[in-house]
Every structure is written in C-alpha cells, then in structure tokens.
Amino acid sequence: MNQPLTLLIKHPPTFENERLYAFYVILKEFLGLDYRSVAEERQDVLITMNDTEGRELLVSDVLFQTPTDKWLKDDSLPIQPLETFDLPQAPVDIACVSPIIPIIYGSRLDSGNYIDVQDSKVKLGLDIFGSAFFMLTRYEEVVKSVKDEHERFPARASLAYREGFLMRPIVNEYLEILWWSIKKLWPGLERKKRSYRVCLSHDVDWPLSVAGNNPLRVLKTAAGDVLKRKDVQLSMRRLMSLAKVCTGNVDADISNTFDFIMDASERKGLRSAFYFIADHTAGRIDGIYRLEDPWIRKLMKKICGRGHEIGLHASYNSFRSADQVKKEFERLISVAEEEGICQDVWGGRQHFLRWEAPTTWRAWEEAGLDYDSTLTFADHVGFRCGVCFEYPVYDVLQRKPLALRERPLIVMEGSMLGGQYMGLSHEKSLPLIQRLAETCKMFNGDFTLLWHNSSLLSKKDRELYGKVLVGV
After folding, report:
1. pTM over 0.90
2. Environment class of residue 153 by beta-carbon count within 10 Å: exposed (0-12), middle (13-18) or buried (19+)?
3. What pLDDT digit, counting tens, does each position of 116-127 carry?
C-alpha cells in the first residue's frame, strides 16, 4: 500500500504554540494538507515530503524569531514602509489582486529576490506563517493603543490601511504563493476544494422605529427626511407608517423590512442571518426592543420558519465581559427554544463593531457561541483580517487556539453610506462592493455582507441593495 503523502515541517523551537496554530490554519484548514511538525535548531522553516527525492521548500522565519521580551511590543511590529515582492519578476503564476505583493514579514534572499526556484528546491523570503499569524490574530491591535470614540481600533491605525492593502486579502495571496511553491515541488498533491460563498447578515438594531417610539421623535425624523436627506417620499412613508402603527398595525412600521430581505435572499438562493440584541447595557444605543416582546418573538419564528438564521448581536458594553455575553446568549437561546427555534450553529456580531483582541473572542467562546462575524473596520470596508476564509481563532495573550471561528466581515453598508465614515454615494458604493465580491470570488472565498434592516427604508436604499445582490 502506498504511504499517504505527508509534509514534514522542521521549524525553530521558539514560539511553538504560535507556530503550530499558523501551520494548522494555513496548511490544514486552508489547504487541506496532511503534515507533521518537528522543532529543531534552525533559522528558517523547512518543508519536505516523506518521499526519497530530496525536494525542499525553505520559508523565511522572522516574526517568531522575535526576542521574548519584545513580543507584543512595538519593536515586534513590521518595519515600515514595507518592502514589496514584484511577481512579474518571478516565475510565479498565481491569482492575486495586484502583482506587487507587500511583505509584512520577510527577508530578501542572497539573490536579492523574495523567491528562488531550482529543480528540487524553492526558497521563499516571505515569512508566510508569521505574516498570516499577524493578520489572523489581530496581533497589532494588542500592541497598539489607538482607539476611536467607541473604543474601537480604527482602520487608519492598521498596517493594512497605512500600507495600502486593506482592500486585498493579503493572506489569501500569500497562501497562493505558498501553494504554487508546494505544487512546484510535489505536483501530486491536491488542495482542499472551495466554493465561493455569499454570507448575508443583518444586525437588528431597530426592528421597529415607529412602534414603541415617541411620536414626536418620529415626526422630527420625518422632518429630517425632507430637510437633511432631501427625500420627501421617505418622509411621507414614515408619516403614513406612524398613522397605521397608531391604529395598532405594528407590521406597517417602516423599519419592518424583514420580508423584503428574506424575499431578496431567497430569489438569490441565499440564507440570511439576523442578529438580535438581547440586553441593554448602554440604554437607547442598544435599541428599544426586548426579545420577550410578542412581535419580536413572532419575527424570530418567521425567520426560522423560512429557513434563515437567528444569531446574537451582543450589546454595546458587552465586548469585554464574558459574563455579559453569556447572559445575553442564554437569553437568546431561551427565547428561541420557547418559540421552537433549533439551530446547529450559533453566531453573531458585536453591536457597533465594538471588539477587542483577544478579549472579545475569548468571551464569545466562553459563552458557547460557534462563530463571530464582527471583524471589519467601522470606518472602512475591506479585509481587516487579511483573508476571505472563515477560520479558527487564536488568543495571543493566553497563547492558545480557541474553538471559536471568525467569519470576517468584508462590507458593512454603514461604513460606506453617509458622512460619518467613508461618505460614499449610493452610486460610488455599488462598484466598490462589486469589486470586493469579485476579489472574494478570485480565491473561492466568502463574501460576508452586513446590511441593516433599518437601512432599507428609502427607494434608493432598496434599489442599491437589489443591485448588490444581483452583482454578488
């Protein structure tokens, strides 16, 4: 019987926990390859095969050579400006967003290049495992103390934004370079098959914006529709909604766009996930509804009955508290069970995208959730984690992998529209969304899109959303 092809990874003995995580995610989770790893005294990572042909892949090792007293310190961050790898000058043919590849961690080879290819040996000056670890674990967010007004790490402080690669999944591009090198040496190997996937999600901040609200506040908002948003039609719809809700017709609330969302998803053959707030740790900023409200229960049951997903939208002040996240998740599960809602997988997202590395991941795992989908930047769309694959996460402070998985968020509509963040028009937002979706398709990855139910009130909003779904 032929022995199965197994990669042998020989690596330096430093930061073994971190290395084993990086090897697992890159080689097993992403590529689906079998391997075993051995620590030995060396300065690079050597990849061989259990064959007799003596082929070798040598990969640069930089991040995990960091002295322990400088780990998670400024001195361990990538040196800027980053150097680049010019693919057209190399014999590498891969899928990439741009042929100029930024080098997060690496070292030029003796030839002055970042790749040398021989018949039985390939040398890579790119520290693929360390660079991927840096992006996937959000290492820099533990090191840097920059925060915005909501205590979030902003895009502008990230290496990806500052070096101009936030709009490309750099880890996926590194993965393709690694796979090209492996395939060059061992052409009999096959990688895991992947298919492009669209993951639609909807944070339920305001399921109802008229019912239960102060009528004077609704009238003020209607005035803003005319004076600020220049949308008379929206103002009229809001006022009509108010009139109907006041007669007891709660379903006529203007923010009740759930059937519209589910209809659109089903026409595209997609399953939407709706994330509900289960507690109010910051007052009105967490909305004005309760899971116990009869209308909310009915909505959750309808969503489940149509084959869509229910999830947790953890409250504003929960992102540093495992106890609070657990309390909210248990409340969601309790209401779901009472309504006959049963799911194999439970996930969600932090309200306001408030997230702290690795505290929030740890809280979600301790609460018993299966996946998180918080990680995009509030102020700019793109690839915060550098990847368009779902992946298991790692706690850089406790130095251990977690069972929780991250489903990176690529686009939140609120990041683009309006003046608070990117300030793009509807017309400019559409090609940007399509560009990001096409990038995910390039790598057979996941395009994860967040669109709030309360951002589908105007005709213009609905038309944009319809065009987005056609294009993805």
Report:
1. yes
2. buried
3. 999 899 999 999
